[in-house]
Amino acid sequence: MKTIEKENKYIAGTYKRFPLEIAGGKGSIAVDSDGKEYIDLASGIAVNTFGYSDPEWTAAVTKQLTTLQHTSNLYYTDPCCTLAEILCTKTGMKKVFFSNSGAEANECAIKAARKYAEKNGKQTTILTLENSFHGRTLTTLAATGQDSFHTDFLPLTEGFCHTPANDIAALKTAFDVYSPCAVMFEIVQGEGGVNPLELEFVKAIEELCRKNDALMIVDEVQTGNGRCGSLYAYMQYGISPDVVTTAKGLGGGLPIGATMLSDKVQDIFTYGSHGSTFGGNPVCCAGAVNIISRITDNLLDGVKERSELIRSMLSGSEGVVSVSGLGLMLGIKTEKPASEIVEKCIKNGVLVITAKDKVRLLPPLNIPLELLEKAVNVIIDACKA
Ligand SMILES: Cc1ncc(COP(=O)(O)O)c(C=O)c1O
């Protein structure tokens, strides 16, 4: 039976896939089951930080795989402790909880906020932004400020409220009305259409969180790990979050989530208050150690250079309305429907995806400049009338 037939027969129908079977890849090139090559500007939705089968990452993962693939969290293992040490050293955060996905990293942040509220006699409500996306579990769906994701799954977890992005007056009102114990937000709303928050708004969140002793939780699941031109996107906004969550690009293609806790909440979790069978898995952590260690200033300069190249090539191009985003997380507003551009690009050997009404680009952070240029020219062609 062919893959697509097997999928239709045996896989739950949650994904509307493109008619394309990815069979392999090398660097920034994906290869389909007929051997056709594509320049991949989506990276498995911001996951393959250094593309397919990056030699250094593959060596680190393989070495760990043949040493110790798993043990339980009843024992100490080195890779997760080394990864936590690197993350804390690079961010100034104090402790890390490891899980397996972005949704789980956010679940952990939400549990931290609820426990903080309970410990300090505060309201348990958590404030998030309209148009946000925080995951697919019932609790992270409740955190997600988009009604379209909620239909059919009610009742969701209680205790979430939403306020519009970049509206400081509404934010203040939300603090007055709900007295939230935490505010959770993305620096660039990814699934919401690649929209960066305004600096003044983010600063206002920080100020209100400090004034009201509410936790500031930054969801860096998509924006993090060098994607936006700094190790974490919040670093460009000059804020000090209490909790930072990340996943996707951290593992470079292996499932891992991380919830980083600042000094304020470093001891919030105690024995038995949270856990995960696979959380801190040695193979995933060895992959993440390799990824995080390679996000150097030099690499980040390369991210900015690539971002500027894309922006300058698209600027003023026929059918391109505007470009939003940060670093190598970009959204292109086009005159033609984004889905039409994506289909045309795939046909012409370039993988891009959509985010709401935009064409979304999330290329590998080290994509060679010539390949990037070639791919952007395909996008430019697709945007033309
Ligand atoms: C900002 C953000 N948070 C959370 C998630 C959920 O991550 P995962 O699919 O790994 O559970 C995503 C996924 O797109 C995301 O973009």
Question: What descriptors fit this protein?
Answer:
single chain; 385 residues; alpha/beta; Aspartate Aminotransferase, domain 2; seven-stranded mixed β-sheet; four-stranded mixed β-sheet; 36% helix; 18% strand
What does it look like?
The protein is of the alpha/beta class and 385 residues long. It has two domains: 12-41 and 296-383, Alpha-Beta Complex (Aspartate Aminotransferase, domain 1), CATH 3.90.1150.10; 57-293, Aspartate Aminotransferase, domain 2, CATH 3.40.640.10. The chain is built from twelve helices and 17 strands. The strands form four sheets. A seven-stranded mixed beta sheet has the order 4-12-11-10-7-5-6, with helices on both faces. It has a four-stranded mixed beta sheet with strand order 1-2-3-15. Helix 10 packs parallel to helix 12 (369-383). The radius of gyration is 21 Å and the shape is globular. Bound molecules: pyridoxal-5'-phosphate (PLP). The site of pyridoxal-5'-phosphate has 14 residues, from helix 5.
